[in-house]
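Hey, resending since the last one bounced:
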Amino acid sequence: MSSFPGSPKLLKGGIVLIDPATAQVQRIIALQYNPESLSRTLQVQGAGEGGDRSEALRLKGPAVETIKLEAEIDATDEMEQGEAVVGEAGISPQLAALETLLYPSSGQLTTNHTLSSLGTLEILPMETALPLFVFGQNRVIPVRVTEFSVTEEAFDPNLNPIRAKVSLGMRVLSIDDVGFTHKAGSLFMSYLQQKEGLRAKAQGGNLGALGLTGIS
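The structure tokens again:
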């Protein structure tokens, strides 16, 4: 489908995987269709939750933010165009790109098994690439994928899925999770500073609009 000259470019949301040490981009997963909505939940970390009155207004750290979205993947157009990968596997590659965010690699699992067989006393948990949830240029957020579910809705004659809905849940990684020196920590601080910059642009209210003349 052709677009009108001068029409704005439609940005896509997605996930970028980077090396947590070097910040080198390892993989980019662009959503085929942007979700119609995002659900974000922020849970306050209050210091006074234990009942100490002197701590009622104190915060222990950044709010714990979670993001949920639903995305659609559909191979109908590609099938009509005769694309080879879709004809061979449907949308399984796109689903696998998302699903493997929750797995250590097979190589890591094999290495740890080998180390265990050799009697290694301490085997560290396997570190994965750092996922960044990107939804526009002003939202590049370090996250950990916490939930993934998929509903496969249609299949080709070989039972490859060709249409699916994916539900994705993510937890924003803050300095409480990784510290200031980790790449995710610096990205989180940029994300927080962007929020503060937007807050400064918000139009302030006045007491009269609330039916008040003063606070006493």
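Residues 14-48+56-103+128-199 form one domain.

Sorry for the duplicate.
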